[in-house]
Amino acid sequence: MKKICVVGLGYIGLPTSAIFAQAGFEVVGVDVNQKIVDSLNNGKIHIEEPGLPEVVERVVKAGKLRASQTPEPADVYIVAVPTPIHPDQTANVDYVRDAVQTITPFIQKGNVLIVESTIPPRTMDDLVAPIIKESGLDPYKDVAIAHCPERVLPGQILRELIENTRIVGGITPEAAKQAADVYRAVVKGDVMETEAVTAEMSKLMENTYRDVNIALANELVKISAKLGVDAHSVIALANRHPRVNIHLPGPGVGGHCLAVDPYFIVEKAQEESPLIQTARNINNSMPHYVETQVERLTSELKNPKIALFGLTYKGNIDDVRESPALDIAESLLKHPKLNVVAHDPHVREEQVSFPLHSFEDAIKDAHLIVVLADHNEFKNLDGAVLKQHMKTPVIFDTKNCVNEIEGVTIYRLGNLSHLKAIQE
Ligand SMILES: NC(=O)c1ccc[n+]([C@@H]2O[C@H](COP(=O)([O-])OP(=O)(O)OC[C@H]3O[C@@H](n4cnc5c(N)ncnc54)[C@H](O)[C@@H]3O)[C@@H](O)[C@H]2O)c1
């Protein structure tokens, strides 16, 4: 059985390591963060992902997965390090460059090198291949170099890692084949071979497609508020057309995929991508739009207390990266006229720069709950508890996830034309 060295033990690298270890491979996971390495070697994980703690504990105990701060000789190298954006919205590929450079002392003729990190088009050919060349190997002959983008849904990563179709783009057809065979050992979905640049671009277009369609839904929210239409009803009815799928509006687009990946295309084709850029701008405008509605709702209260529910970029996860909910919280916490508290059962204090409150503390004497993430905990709120502890039982649900509650006023992004300032 082959030995695999996975560089980067985050939301992608850690479950990937666990899946290969579970399938019988010897896996060494590498991370620059000593804490992550130590916890993994103790069979523990530092991220929230259903089912993953059990698998990791099992494979670490069985000696199939261990962690280290430095790479070591292996047959297959998989790079899963972050690719954030710089403040000027260009891709930061420094982590990928560093990770590949740390591998070069160990990589040998006949090995496979796969980058799973999301990368701008041509990164495999223009950045990764030259690093391997500098190390003295021929990147087009000696090593099978490929990009295999990840498209898992956080919260369902273990299942999707195995069931999703994988795209494997090689810098040569032979590289694509060898890298694809690595995945065929564990993946039940189709494993499609293509060129590296096509794989890079297809990953970016998947997320751009979703970002553009969410922008369309967010634009509909603004139009509907102006015209006195309920956007959620419009979406529900329009989607009964067999070939229409309007996406869900929300407080903005977050995470390090949808909110980031479109910029990787824009960077390489600025003039050719006006639609993608406009979609980004619309989605980026949503946090401010939500803040404005909060101001409208509380405009007639003397000392309004607002409880923000949910800080992650989507429901039932603990990830706050690029989260519009976090932007809204940070902005409203600075608001001179509002007393704002935040509550999120999935987020730990050290992930944010402000205090977190329990459900009970958050709702006590609150005039308004603003739901910013569709965590399951928020879907069926207890009306009696809200009415007993809140000053005015009003909810502004930006995710359209809270079920109707008798005696509690719920405003949703779709029905803002009915919005009335809260009266004490
Ligand atoms: N999380 C997702 O749902 C998801 C989905 C699709 C694609 N991706 C892409 O996958 C890549 C990884 O994302 P993630 O969410 O796992 O990131 P992450 O931040 O959760 O984890 C990355 C890990 O890499 C480590 N690291 C950084 N530089 C390193 C180096 N030189 N050597 C060793 N370790 C290093 C960090 O310490 C961190 O633990 C990104 O390009 C992301 O865009 C993520």
From TrEMBL:
<dbReference type="InterPro" id="IPR036291">
    <property type="entry name" value="NAD(P)-bd_dom_sf"/>
</dbReference>
<dbReference type="InterPro" id="IPR008927">
    <property type="entry name" value="6-PGluconate_DH-like_C_sf"/>
</dbReference>
<feature type="domain" description="UDP-glucose/GDP-mannose dehydrogenase C-terminal">
    <location>
        <begin position="307"/>
        <end position="404"/>
    </location>
</feature>
<dbReference type="Pfam" id="PF03720">
    <property type="entry name" value="UDPG_MGDP_dh_C"/>
</dbReference>
<dbReference type="InterPro" id="IPR014026">
    <property type="entry name" value="UDP-Glc/GDP-Man_DH_dimer"/>
</dbReference>
<dbReference type="GO" id="GO:0016628">
    <property type="term" value="F:oxidoreductase activity, acting on the CH-CH group of donors, NAD or NADP as acceptor"/>
</dbReference>
<dbReference type="GO" id="GO:0000271">
    <property type="term" value="P:polysaccharide biosynthetic process"/>
</dbReference>
<dbReference type="GO" id="GO:0051287">
    <property type="term" value="F:NAD binding"/>
</dbReference>
<dbReference type="InterPro" id="IPR017476">
    <property type="entry name" value="UDP-Glc/GDP-Man"/>
</dbReference>
<keyword id="KW-0560">Oxidoreductase</keyword>
<dbReference type="InterPro" id="IPR028359">
    <property type="entry name" value="UDP_ManNAc/GlcNAc_DH"/>
</dbReference>
<dbReference type="GO" id="GO:0016616">
    <property type="term" value="F:oxidoreductase activity, acting on the CH-OH group of donors, NAD or NADP as acceptor"/>
</dbReference>
<dbReference type="Pfam" id="PF00984">
    <property type="entry name" value="UDPG_MGDP_dh"/>
</dbReference>
<comment type="similarity">
    <text>Belongs to the UDP-glucose/GDP-mannose dehydrogenase family.</text>
</comment>
<dbReference type="InterPro" id="IPR014027">
    <property type="entry name" value="UDP-Glc/GDP-Man_DH_C"/>
</dbReference>
<keyword id="KW-0520">NAD</keyword>
<dbReference type="Pfam" id="PF03721">
    <property type="entry name" value="UDPG_MGDP_dh_N"/>
</dbReference>
<protein>
    <submittedName>
        <fullName>UDP-N-acetyl-D-mannosaminuronic acid dehydrogenase</fullName>
    </submittedName>
</protein>
<dbReference type="InterPro" id="IPR036220">
    <property type="entry name" value="UDP-Glc/GDP-Man_DH_C_sf"/>
</dbReference>
<dbReference type="InterPro" id="IPR001732">
    <property type="entry name" value="UDP-Glc/GDP-Man_DH_N"/>
</dbReference>
